[in-house]
Amino acid sequence: MKPLRVLVLTHEDLVPPDTLEGREAKEVELWRKEYDVAAGLRELGHEVQILGVAHDLTPIRQHVEGFRPDLVFHLLMEFQDVAVYQAHVASYLELLRVAYAGCNPRGLLLARDKALSKKILRYHRIPAPDFAVFPVGRAIRVPRRLGYPRIVKSIDEEASLGIAQASVVHDEERLRERVAFVHRRLACDAIAEQYILGRELTIGVLGNERLETFPVWEMVFEKLPEGSEPIATARAKWNLAYQRRVGVQTGPALELQAGLAEQIAHLAKRTYRALGLTGYARIDLRLAEDGRAYVIEANPNPDLRRDEDFAMSAAAAGLDYPSLLQRILNLGLRHRPPWKAAD
Fold first, then answer.
1. 258-298, pLDDT tens digit by residue?
2. Is CATH 3.30.470.20 the right assignment for the domain spanning 197-333?
3. What is 5-101's CATH number?
4. Domain boundaries defined on the chain
5. Do the domains spanning 130-194 and 197-333 agree at the CATH topology level?
């Protein structure tokens, strides 16, 4: 394997140190993904530079011209504090004519918009919850025939931002309250999806044209208080004390009906292709009590920490962490954006 020059692109507040020595666990959690990726790339023998940016594209161009990377590992989740601008940074990398690891700009934009992506999925007859959108800055007009329960979310934020137990609503009054909360707290449109009571599943997908899926993964709540819903809230994902209190565990989905794992893998690949994704992604699903799987959303460029679901499910498929990173690098090098096709 030829060593590569890799520029790891991340937010300026998340540039990790060279070592974890002397760092407290709470501090490490902030930039653990960035540290793990950089350390894993160095473990593979690659030359790594880490660049933190926030509001200015100029440093990216300067590092591309000065360091001359073989590939940029795109770990930015937002730019100028705007989530959807993640895709525009990928577009800028294409304009610089540099290869990058991660999803292409169009796939990022389509997947990030929860309403638009569901329209595309439903067009392709991929089972997804129905929904209603409530634009920020407008009066909250609730459709007369809107069924309940619903789960209210930001239309484009990731990492369960703004999702809590109160996000699941059972009547119009609570719906209005939660939509207003999203408008006020997150300053973006709200989407109210049909709430699917059932199991919280994910599945990792890797590839550009030829796709590979990892084992179906599940989030379970061993000590969830009575009246609480089994959903991936922000606390369930990121609050270690809350995870211990309610017994949040993730691992291989057990006791699936015969053939269901294969059906979910097929749904994930159809979703990936329908949204035009490349590189790697995690597809989130709900398994209803009647055994039907619904695609909730696609997450291109998901969390790549060594101990997160995507990497752990890859390991369960026989792909260790450094090998997973190398596969993602190879996919970035093989991806053919428009500028390559024009050459």
1. 999 999 999 999 999 999 999 999 999 999 999 999 999 99
2. yes
3. 3.40.50.20
4. 5-101, 130-194, 197-333
5. no
One-letter amino acid of 151: I
Radius of gyration of the chain (CA): 20
Sheet holding 168-169, edge to edge: 131-134, 190-194, 150-154, 168-169
What is the C-alpha to C-alpha distance for residues 330 and 327, in angstroms, rounded to an integer?
Answer: 5
Distance CA 95, CA 214 (A): 32
Read off the pLDDT of residues 210-219 as tens digits, 9 standing for 90 and up.
Answer: 999 999 999 8
Question: What's the rounded Cα separation, in Å, for the pair 214 and 17?
Answer: 31
The two three-digit tokens of residue 71, written as one number:
């590939």
pTM > 0.90: yes or no: yes
Which one is the CATH code of 130-194: 2.60.98, 1.25.40, 3.30.1490, 2.40.50?
3.30.1490
Q: What is the pLDDT of residues 111-127, one digit of tens each?
A: 999 999 999 999 999 99
Is pLDDT of 28 > 70?
yes
Measured on CA atoms in the order 222, 251, 30, 212, is the torsion positive or negative? negative
